[in-house]
Amino acid sequence: MSEFGFRVLKNDRASRARLGRIRTARGAIDTPYLVPVATCASVRALSSEDLLALGAQCALANTYHLALRPGAELIRKFGGLAGFMGFPRPFFTDSGGFQAFSLGAGKAHGVNKLGTIFPGRAEAAGKSPVLAEVTEEGVRFRSVYDGSEHFLDAAGSMRLQSDLGADMIMAFDECTSPLADYEYTKRALERTHRWAEVSLRDHDPRQALYGIVQGGWFRDLREASADFVSSRPFDGIAIGGSLGKSKDDMHEILDWVVPRLDRRPRHLLGIGGIDDLFLCVEKGIDTFDCVTPTRQARRGILYLSPASGGAPANNFRFQLRGARFKTDELPIDPACACSTCRTYSRAYLRHLFLAHELTFFRLATIHNVHFVLDLMARIRRAIREDSLAALRREWLGT
Ligand SMILES: [Zn+2]
User: Fold this and answer.
1) Assigned domain for 282 exists
2) 69 and 40 Cβ atoms separated by less than 8 Å
3) 322 and 277, same structural domain?
4) 55 C-alpha vs ligand 1 centroid, how far in Å?
5) Cα(122)–Cα(100) distance, rounded to whole angstroms?
């Protein structure tokens, strides 16, 4: 049986925020927490030693990418992700569904992985996508790596996630496009709920299984999905899918869903802007995952705290490329205690960036990851000390 457990240590008085602790066989995760994303068994540019030095409590890896390369079977032989990566902390894996739909369909239409072609839209337009075909059984898709054809269903996703050996896994679901209409979203939701039952039946009992609330931006579907997932014996509950067309929509969706959930841990898939962290914690989310901090770092976009000029207007970040940093002796963020800020100037880091020196990726990523993990630690402290609203005002001004 899974050694998984979750305890709410304190509920915030002024919001739905809660301080909690997830317990796993590989250690505990203090929540709320932004889970660093190790898409291909690596938090890009960082070693597992870097992650440990940053105090990362856990990581989230992508089933789709790892199943295609190097293969889940291989990772199993190394004792799962923790052994393969040399990172002896708890892992989450996603179900692989999201990438199978979005990357498969994107490839089919010749757009990149951030493209806007989704199965729901193709179906709505009366066309079936060529390379990511959703059926009642699962999804047939082409690998983004070599174009080979694959089929993934709920039972297969559970097998792959068992081989990857994460502590917390996700039920297989269909993530619909924000462009999908009500009828398509409803049918997709019914499929997702059937696949949830298969996931419950077939998952490795040593792993904690999160059910996923879908339903797009339709209130009755979101509420029905929240009620369904809550009624089943999942270990945790994830909120997935298109969260509407704007941040306001996302907050509204959380207002529909979260009050219907019980004390099980709640994960919000794929969200992690600085303002989102505050707002979603206050809506009652315990864990998030997001590639934004690491992706931005590699592009020279670095986080800045309010003490150093970070604000909602600049999204708490700046682009280091700017000529005004050419001779800047300050660290990235003078208020930051990360190893990069303790050692290097903006001028030096800007030089590395413009010279395409590989070290830049690591040093910048260390700062951005430290920044968000430190912010989550402050948020937890604020909940403990009944000062979350004050911390939010300090950062967001509202
Ligand atoms: Zn720093």
Assistant:
1) yes
2) yes
3) no
4) 14
5) 15
Q: How far apart are CA 173 and CA 157, in angstroms?
A: 10
Q: Distance (Å, rounded) from C-alpha 89 to C-alpha 82?
A: 7
Q: What pTM was computed for the model? A: 0.93
Percent share of the chain, pLDDT over 70: 92
Residue type at position 197: E
Whether the CB-CB separation of 198 and 172 falls below 8 Å is answered with yes
354 CA to middle of ligand 1, Å? 19
Residues with catalytic function: 94, 289
314 and 286 share a domain?
no
Indicate the pLDDT class of residue 384, thresholds 50, 70 and 90: very high
195, two tokens: 């696949």
Residues 282, 321 within the same domain:
no
What's the CA-to-centroid distance between 40 and ligand 1, angstroms? Answer: 25
Centroid of ligand 1 to alpha carbon of 161 (angstroms):
34
Structural domain boundaries, residue 41: 5-290
Is the pLDDT reported for residue 64 higher than 80? Answer: yes
Is 395 inside a domain boundary?
A: no
- Same domain flag for 316 and 264: no
Query: Tens digits of per-residue pLDDT, 115-148?
Result: 333 444 444 444 444 568 889 999 998 888 888 8
Question: Residue 204 Cα, ligand 1 centroid: separation in angstroms?
Answer: 40
List CB-based neighbours of ion ligand 1 within 5 Å: 336, 338, 341, 367
Q: How many degrees, rounded to 5, is the angle at CA 166 between CA 107 and CA 132?
A: 20
Structure confidence at residue 122 (pLDDT): 45
Q: Sorting pLDDT into bands at 50, 70 and 90, what band is 243?
A: confident
pLDDT value, residue 55? 98
List, for residues 100-109, the tens digit of each pLDDT value. 877 765 544 4
